[in-house]
User: Fold this.
Amino acid sequence: MEIIITRVQELLATEFGGEAVIAVEDAGLQPALVIHREELAAVCLFLRDHEETYFDFLSCISAVDNGTESGSFSVVYHLASIPYRHQLTLKVTLENDRGLDNLPVVPTVTNVWRTADWHEREAFDLMGIYFDGHPDLRRILLPEDWEGYPLRKDYEEAETYHGIAIK
Amino acid sequence: MALQLSDAPPYQEAQRAHEARLAAIGAEEMVINMGPQHPSTHGVLRLQLITDGEIVKEVIPHVGYLHRCFEKHAESMNYGKTIPFTDRMDYLASMNNSHAFVMGVERMLGIDQKIPKRIEYIRVLVCELNRIASHLIAIGTYGIDIGAFTPFMWCFRDREHIMNMLEWASGSRMLYNYIWIGGLFYDLPVGFEERCSEFIRYFKPKLHELDELLTANQIFISRTANIGPLPADVAINYGCSGPMLRASGIKWDLRRVDEYSVYPELEFDIPTGKGEMGRIGDCWDRFKVRVDEIKESVRIIEQCLERLAGALKRTVDFDPRALVPKKVNLKTQDYYVRAENPKGELGFYFVTQDKTDIPKRVKARGPSFHNLSVLPELAKGVLIADLVAILGSIDIVLGEVDR
Assistant:
């Protein structure tokens, strides 16, 4: 599974130039490609349809808070290919000031994999990532009038909910 | 970024559009709420149906009623303490959940190859027992959804034997906390192998009976065949996995694809949907794949028992906790582990941090969550009664959808 990452990098370099892949993280057990935010949707579509990669299955989208001091979020995409049986990890890093009216923005991949719909709604709901172009970006697990994004490291629980003390 | 009105709260456009959509429903359409307390939703799922007479035009699922903040909890305690929380995700298959979680931590620690064979075989044995129990519930409750009550009682009767056995091993009936990082809570109790073989001898004819009662039942077939067919490409695009995906004809089982634990040493087949009664990927196929998977699990259990009673027999000095780490010390890394749950691909994504045994982020990818997300696609233009049949064939557990 690790052999493929250099090949994917080559393919992306020929298709998108040097810009799309910012870095390769190969220190851990699963190597990952850090993708430029603007190119993400195009890269995903390319990887899904290219005959050598064919990543037709999106396993997981995880939003990660990199900590209050770093001031950035990551969105991690785990792709899998059913015919080739290989896996790939893509990452996007988003710099943000953590303001509740200034969410980090990343392009949606719902046009590439429909399963991204609920993944992205969950990431929006719990981590406050805004997926630009998503057809129906409502909260999914929490009530629609919830305030704040609970999986953020600086989240503080509300004192009351609908006038009821909950602390 | 989408346009925002200056006085409206930000990032609420989709919510307002949703409310406006429901407010603009015409006179010939009607909005019906199915759930959260509807028996056929298998838990607290709420479906908003936009109907035209008996025809469902659109389904809007609302989930989250059972949200218990698994991911937030997991960020506040060490890896070992999180295992009981994973049990409560898919509470019908707790062993499989903790197996996946434990496997991920073990691989990050680098001890996954050092686990003794006896421990791995016990893990597979209890996971497959749990898989049978989970599929029995799926089949039994599916019978109820369609109007057959007897299979439900039969399935629960046989499941009870499995529950009793797993209770004997772990001390708990449903939420086991049995599989630990690096080992097991305890070795199997003395006599477990014999009792389990006895159960398998009892269960095989019962399974045949169940098969005859439901699978070839004409009433059952007319309620399920050709209902809600899910084409393979749609299933993949929606991230469906497990029996959902296999019923659509794709031979995709992570036990074979990833070859984790001792599955490469075991013989079993991967049943797929063939459209015997109707079309490939219809409700009947999804049901049939589960029945066939029970048969395969029985095969796996027999092989495990043979080895556990033979070559890997228990010894006096065998300690299933010998490799359990006192503290899980991981360097900063991230890892996505996936395993085949009864419902499909269960994944955990870990982001670890240095100098502490508390993870920075744990994301759980529940198979039911994604299998359910295909429902609006499947339910376009079906009858309300067929919607119940489709929902039952997806086999969701709301504990895992909402986590």
